[in-house]
Amino acid sequence: MTTRARGTMGAFAAVTTLFFAWGFITSLIDPLVAAVKGVFSLSDIEAQLSASAFFIAYGVVSLPAAVLVARRRAVPSILIALGTMIAGCVVMLIAANLALYPLVLLGLFILASGITILQVAANPLAAALGDPKFSHFRLTFSQAFNSVGTFIGPYIGAVLFLDGLEVKEGVAVTDAVRASALIGIDRAYFWLAGLIAVLLVFFVFARRTVEAAAPATAPHASGIAETLREALSSRWAVLGGAAIFLYVGAEVAIGTQMALFLNSNAVWGLSDAPAAVGPLARFMALDSDPGVSLQEAAKAVSLYWGGAMVGRIIGSALLARVNASVLLAIFTAAAAAMCGYVFAIGGVGAGYVALSIGLFNSIMFPTIFTLTLERSTASQEATSGFLCTAIVGGAFIPPLVGSVSQATGYAAAFVVPMLCYLALCGFALLSRGAGVVLRDEPAAASIH
What we know:
By secondary structure, this protein is mostly helical. It has helices at residues 3-27, 29-39, 44-72, 74-98, 101-128, 135-161, 175-213, 224-232, 235-263, 278-284, 294-319, 324-344, 348-361, 364-375, 380-389, 393-408, 415-432.
């Protein structure tokens, strides 16, 4: 192996650590939504504002981040992003100690702002560190490491945030349980601040390796308005943005309500069926009490994200052999069908089906991203920044799902992500017949 090849592999490994970090932090939102619902006595819609505060940052920060990366280049932007994430963790610590929900929302927004900069900065790096012919394969494979973070996050959050906490109607939250949940939130974000600081130091030392492996590009000074106009001038950038909006909204809405859905009496709340499945019972650490508690249900949410982890590994192999548009159409249709089952049939079986949706979510984001970049007539920076802006779907779809669940029930609310997945299937079929725009730079993808 040549020195340059070893340098490229080392740079790719350094960038991959960032995928893991933001996957872990993002997936903590799922148990956090359930926790704040009980701690602050919130409705479903109010609790989902936690997801909104986090994902609204993508709508606000993505284009400024694209301008930052264009002017300062990727590596300095990554260091700024990590510093912003540490600031967000500090605000979360203050929020937990003062027990103020508005501060929780502010902390999540700041934390997500750093993650947004991180994603926009990582896109061109991930594109440059390998053969452009294998962009779908390479980027989907690297995101398996992101999925390790999303798999671990909900489980740790459930252990720290939800000990003894229940949010069903008629169940009172005691001061002791509320205090325990707040201490868990404090502890989680304290350690996160420390781990991000370690990552910052690591990347300071790795920056030369990354900069040496990436192709040299001259900084340029495109403004936010100019970047947005360029992105909107491309039909495929707009279509891809709509697809990312719907995908992220559906995925986040399912994840943030999964624990409440599984804990509901209509699914697993009063059922001992999961206890009969040995590996599942051990994973959820089920006790001898009848039914599934909120904390036990929240642990199972890791399996939703774990399905995405497994799916990305399988998807990496499939994308090397199957046309990306065709595979995306198959996966989106399958996810829509599973949401339809939960909505129309429900019951204990719906719990297993809902958890399995993550397997089909697996390839959607990177494939939508790269399909769009290949077809967009706008520059890579403008298209990437616009697509990351579209992740703001995670701020709007979850409250919509929360309003439906509040009015009709958690299972019925799956009709909203079902419609999102059907629209994504249409995007996949449309991309099949669209031409690819030839450009010098390779396509890149990120993950929220």
